[in-house]
Write a structure and sequence with these properties.
The complex is a heterodimer of chains A (348) and B (116).
Chain A (H helix, E strand, L loop, with lengths): L33 H26 E8 L7 H14 L4 E5 L7 H4 L8 E3 L2 E3 L1 E2 L5 E4 L15 H13 L6 E7 L6 H9 L5 E6 L3 H16 L4 E6 L4 E6 L5 E5 L5 E5 L5 E6 L6 H9 L3 E4 L4 H9 L3 H4 L4 H19 L7 E2 L1
Helix pairs in contact in A: 1-4, 2-10, 4-5, 6-7
Chain B lengths: L6 E6 L3 E6 L4 E5 H6 L6 H4 L3 H13 L6 E5 L3 E5 L8 E3 H8 L16
Antiparallel strand pairs in B: 1-2, 2-3, 4-5, 5-6
The chains are: A alpha/beta (348), B alpha+beta (116).
Chain lengths: 348, 116
């Protein structure tokens, strides 16, 4: 079974008819069979891939994994947002969507239907908004509805190809988006990619999501990957309105709660509803002894943007979500600089 | 287990390796011990059954002594590549610390696939 599921070259076929082959075809000089040639090519590709992954450290300054213990907390949205926010600041950014079975990043960046360019065994990423380079399994599927039904070794082979065969070029940041959980995919990346700067763990404020985010933090600690911080997504839904200046109002919220608001001198008012509770991400970060990167608001514009292929950060660069992402990125930069790096192991 | 120190230096010899830790201590782990305590999914369960453990011990003893190729795995483990016998094990630094300090690297527990 091939460990290179993404094939970008045809195996060399032996065109010599059997009748013309040498009688002593079992001798040492006999040409390799097609199967032997394929095995040699795969072994060579594997070795070359390993070397390339080692070289990535020199070309890519920072490698950041984005995980969540639980699905549906907005991890891909956050990974895409972090990439776009970094790119907006002038950095060269790559975004690797390693969710083999549910790749959503191309949809969020308006790259559905894009096909990857492959040349001389190198895979060239697609270019999304703000020049973000993107690699995703979605680019290899015939259509959006095609499921990827692969056993573990095949998935891992694809991941290693995404790591070792892609021509990323020089990057300031490589953001790696994973499927939910702490299984094969993040383990493979941690084992294969040298010098990972750390992990960002995405959660929503409620207990069910936090339970799983703690597992992601434990996973990072167990594998000695620094946790750069927890991001609390869907943290508060802000509603706004106008009224007569200085008017006092009571706004009904979820679960029978209500909030008192007062319109300002211009008649503007706003209030934030904690639909998924609030503060759980920061509390969890403090309890687990890891940094808290910040909160991202529950913004229906993010949902629309994800579906329309224009991320909220691009559609509304001065909006609440874009500003919140910028704050998270600023804190992320600080944490990357201060993340403890090991002294280095000398092997003789 | 005492707090595991950071492994700073690994020097391979013909039959054993010398490990130097951040606290300044140096230990020797011979290759037969290292290979017997391989944490992979095939070797691990064999140590749980006395007859299989004895067989594993004999198999390891019969292997030629050789210097392995050592490569880091992420920032949390080392992989040892041998020309013969099992090379599947990924040795977390905690495991190497236990071996270096003559502690049970399985911590008295039976092998559980995927356990750390």
């Amino acid at each position: 079974m091939s460990d290179s599921p993404i094939s970008h070259h045809e195996p060399t076929k032996d065109a010599t008819p059997d009748s013309e082959k040498s009688a002593d075809s079992d001798s040492d000089d006999a040409p390799a069979s097609v199967e032997q040639q394929q095995q040699m090519e795969q072994a060579y590709a594997k070795m070359k891939r390993k070397m390339t992954m080692q070289e990535m450290g020199a070309k890519i300054k920072h490698k950041i994994m984005v995980l969540s213990g639980k699905g549906g907390v907005g991890k891909s949205t956050v990974a895409t947002g972090l990439s776009l926010s970094l790119a907006a600041q002038g950095h060269q950014v790559g975004l690797l969507d390693i969710d083999i079975t549910g790749p959503n990043v191309p949809k969020m960046l308006g790259l559905v239907g894009h096909r990857l360019h492959v040349e001389e065994g190198r895979i060239y990423p697609a270019i999304g908004h703000s020049g973000v380079k993107v690699i995703s399994m979605a680019f290899l599927l015939e259509d959006e509805d095609t499921p990827v039904v692969w056993r573990g070794p095949i998935k891992l082979g694809a991941i290693q190809q995404f790591l070792g065969d892609v021509e990323w070029g020089e990057l300031d940041y490589l953001i790696i988006d994973f499927p939910p959980g702490t299984s094969d995919e993040p383990l493979t990346v941690v084992q294969s990619l040298p010098d990972i700067d750390g992990m960002v763990v995405v959660t929503t404020p409620q207990d069910v999501a936090l339970l799983d985010s703690r597992k992601s933090i434990g996973f990072a600690t167990s594998l000695k990957v620094p946790v750069l911080g927890v991001v609390e997504n869907m943290s508060g839904y802000t509603i706004r309105g106008t009224a007569e200046p200085k008017t006092e109002m009571k706004i009904d919220g979820p679960e029978g709660s209500s909030v008192d608001v007062v319109a300002d001198a211009e008649g503007n008012w706003s209030t934030t509803m904690n639909i998924f509770k609030a503060g759980g991400g920061q509390t969890t970060a403090e309890e687990m002894g890891v940094p808290f990167l910040g909160r991202l608001p529950f913004d229906p514009g993010v949902v629309r943007g994800g579906d329309d292929g224009v991320h909220r950060i691009v559609a509304d660069p001065q909006g609440e979500s874009a500003l919140a992402f910028a704050k998270v990125v600023a804190q992320l930069d600080v944490n990357i600089s201060s993340a403890k790096k090991s002294g280095g192991l000398e092997i003789i | 287990m005492d707090e595991v120190q950071e492994l700073q230096r690994l020097e391979r010899g013909d039959s054993a390796m010398e490990l130097t830790w951040s606290g300044g201590s140096t230990n020797t782990v011979d290759y037969r011990t290292l290979r017997y305590w391989c944490p992979c999914a095939k070797c691990g369960p064999r140590r749980d059954a006395p007859n299989l453990a004895e067989l594993l011990q004999k198999e390891v003893a019969a292997l030629p002594l050789e210097m392995p190729t050592v490569k880091p795995v992420g920032g949390y483990a080392l992989h040892f590549e041998w020309s013969r016998g099992c090379s599947s094990g990924i040795y977390r630094f905690e495991r190497l610390w236990a071996l270096a300090n003559a502690l049970d690297p399985d911590d008295g527990k039976s092998y559980v696939h995927g356990a750390w």
